Amino acid sequence: MSNLQTFLSKSTGVISNAVKCGVRKMAAPSMVPPVAKSRYDSVKAAPVRLPKKLKILQPFQTSIFPNDRSQVRGVDNVVHQLLQRRYRLKNFHPIMRNTFLSVQLFPRDHILSNFRKSNISLVFNMHQLPMLNDRHLESGFKSRPKYKDLQFFDSKPSPMQSACGRTKSKKQFKELFVKSLQNFSNHRNNDRLFGIFVFHVLKVPVNQEQNEVILRDLENMCLDLLDKDNKWNDLKNLYNKSKDPSPQQLKNVQYSYGAKGLLDRRVRFPFSNKRTNKILKK
């Protein structure tokens, strides 16, 4: 046996006899983890609350005529859908019709008027707008396969197809509508104009001359409602004969702006009939 092997055998024996490894016994792990403590546990964050002054009605939530387009609001989304699906033009004839739009009116005592957000509310239906804002041009492009490779068909040729186009068109009609109402704010029967107007847009005006046509027709429409009792009575009778929406159809109406657990003092439906709303909520 070589000297190296002898040395290694002796070293191994010394180490194995001299060194002893003691394994420390670990405590059994607890089944319940310790609860983290913080010096902030006793502090509770108060919920964010809107100031009480917002309970005061805004001008458009009172029985006054709007003097700006911002004072003409819409309705609840559920009611908006009902107006378009249940009260179609073929069954509930418009009170005014021209090249650009057809107008329906739901008086203030109609059940859906409980859910309007302003004294005079306005709802738009723009699904009938033709391509290129012209019905004749639209019919001329019916043979689409012949032109399908044109870049034109990758664009948005109708105002309805873009959010910017819809917003701009609604703003234009709303301004004309508010302007037409200014002449009748002091009329003895001006409450006949309180309610929901539905504009079924057929064409968007593109110049001042067309704006004047719409403004004139809207003013004549208001004048007929205010001065001609027979036209007003016909409108009332039409809706009196119709069947009201069921509570089931209105169950998803949002009565408050507030999120869950947040107190919100803003008034969403300032002209709602509490008795009617109580029945619908059952």
From TrEMBL:
<protein>
    <submittedName>
        <fullName>Uncharacterized protein</fullName>
    </submittedName>
</protein>
